[in-house]
Write a structure and sequence with these properties.
The protein is mainly alpha-helical. Among the domains are: 123 residues; 201 residues, no CATH class. It is built from 19 helices and two strands. It has a two-stranded antiparallel ribbon with strand order 1-2. A hairpin with a 4-residue loop joins strand 1 and strand 2. Helix 3 runs parallel beside helix 15. It is globular, with a radius of gyration of 22 Å.
């Protein structure tokens, strides 16, 4: 394809990030200008995404638009960008999530240059990661995507978490190096760049098979909140009070999940397949452990982290099933899931901010005086745990059905983890609505503004229509 429409999805937010960094600090209106640029960049990107959707056949599953860029002649390397419906759904959901976030920033202190520039850089790199159609482009964006998160955590995270940040950065670096080794070995098989669709079909002999697949496995696992990495990721996420940074932190596991979807073959080599039961056991133990901890944890942000972890591991379990029919359903679920996580994180941030402004030490009953916040939080919690009229319900039902069909015990334990984490969120919602111990401070004017309320209701309508027709926004 000779056009550069896919490249625009990387360039637009990247230009917005450069503009944000170039803005002068001595101007009184700098923060507002940077904020306006970020809104324009996201809206322009969403417009391009919808145009790309209109050029695709939603009934096809393979790559439909591919752009090639000649990089070097010796060695011969050509980079490819491409999309299918699955990757487009993820790109749209991520860009839409950050647009929701930008529209719901209610304090000017949250509109700093560093925050906006790092956010736009992260969006640009994540878009490139989802658009990568060959192993080299895939690796470049995989390795680079962690940089904005490390910048944001070091700037907005807790100062007490510096040791955790160093270890988290080290894990990501090791993961990137392992993937680099695997990519180089794949390149040497044919002495040319390899498309992602063919990566899982390559044949390796002897120890090379272990090195390649084990390297790929560990590289992607390092981005997922699974034992033994879950502690460092949970420690970092619990220290992120800024909702935009919290979203970035919770999208990093999506990179690991997407890596498995693109690289991992349906028929795993026998030398690696023998370890599958052990990995499944680790996934289930992690899901159950984090879900149980969330029941006793007092911090709602940890409960949200537990929810995101359990659902990421649910989708990862679906990816490792010996079938590829679930990919589209996982894409539909992730589209709704990312929007729900975004709204919940901003609603929690709003409640925390009002507690601090009003001098309230406990949050029990605070929703009794915030009807708009109460309504939005209740609806999105119900949507998040899979209410039967939400888009998560039907697609998760199909994923769980395949897991039960594959292994009954595995399905029961996955269902148990989902039930526990849903109970944890409902317990927190009840506490926030418990009028018997409601906050005594006056909270007049602490509810959502008209603009924020409209954004959240609009996001709810997007989810509502997605239940009836997941791709209703396609022209």
């Amino acid at each position: 394809m000779d056009s550069y429409i896919l490249l625009l999805l990387i360039v637009i937010p990247l230009l917005g990030a450069f503009f944000s960094l170039a803005a002068k600090n001595d101007r009184a209106d700098t923060a507002q200008n940077v904020y306006n640029v970020s809104i324009f960049s996201l809206m322009a990107n969403i417009g391009v995404i919808l145009y790309v959707f209109s050029c695709c056949n939603t009934r096809e599953t393979g790559m439909q638009l591919v752009e090639r860029f000649y990089w070097t002649e010796f060695p011969p390397i050509t980079l490819y960008l491409g999309v299918d419906i699955f990757s487009l759904l993820l790109i749209l959901s991520v860009n839409f999530a950050f647009l929701i976030g930008e529209l719901c920033l209610h304090r000017k202190t949250e509109r700093s240059k560093t925050l906006i520039a790092s956010e736009l850089l992260f969006i640009s790199l994540v878009n490139g990661f989802f658009l990568a159609a060959d192993i080299i482009t895939f690796y470049i964006f995989f390795a680079a995507s962690a940089a904005p998160l490390i910048i944001l955590i070091s700037t907005y995270g807790s100062q007490r978490k510096k040791t955790v940040l160093v270890r988290f950065s080290l894990y990501n670096l090791i993961g990137a190096l392992l993937l680099l080794v695997a990519v180089v070995m794949m390149y040497n098989v044919h002495r040319q760049n390899i498309l992602l669709g063919a990566a899982g079909k390559l044949d390796f002999q002897g120890k090379a098979e272990y090195v390649v697949w084990l390297g790929i496995f560990l590289a992607f696992i390092s981005r997922l909140p699974i034992w033994p990495f879950h502690y460092w990721i949970s420690s970092i996420n619990s220290s992120l009070k800024n909702p935009l940074v919290f979203i970035v932190g919770n999208l990093i596991p999506l990179i690991g999940l997407y890596g498995f979807i693109r690289f991992w073959p349906n028929t795993v080599p026998e030398t690696i397949a023998v370890y599958a039961p052990f990995f499944e056991a680790v996934c289930i133990i992690t899901m159950l452990f984090i879900a149980l901890v969330s029941l006793s944890h007092k911090d709602i942000r940890y409960k949200l982290f537990a929810y995101t972890t359990v659902y990421y591991l649910l989708y990862l379990t679906g990816v490792f099933l010996p079938t590829d029919i679930l990919k589209q359903n996982i894409g539909y679920s992730l589209f709704a899931y990312i929007i729900i996580i975004t709204v919940l994180s901003f609603l929690i941030s709003h409640i925390d901010y009002q507690k601090k402004e009003l001098g309230i030490y406990g949050s029990s009953g605070i929703l009794c005086y915030m009807p708009r916040t109460s309504k939005c939080l209740s609806l999105f919690v119900l949507a998040g745990i899979g209410l039967p009229v939400t888009p998560l319900f039907w697609n998760n039902f199909i994923i769980l059905s395949e897991i039960f069909n594959y292994n009954l015990i595995l399905g029961i334990m996955v269902m148990g983890a989902l039930f526990i984490v849903a109970l944890s969120l409902l317990e927190e919602l009840f506490r926030l609505k418990d009028k018997s111990s409601a906050a005594s401070a006056c909270v007049l004017g602490a509810d959502l503004s008209n603009r924020h309320y409209a954004v959240y209701i609009g996001s709810l309508l997007v989810l509502f229509f997605s239940f009836f027709k997941p791709l209703w926004f396609v022209f």
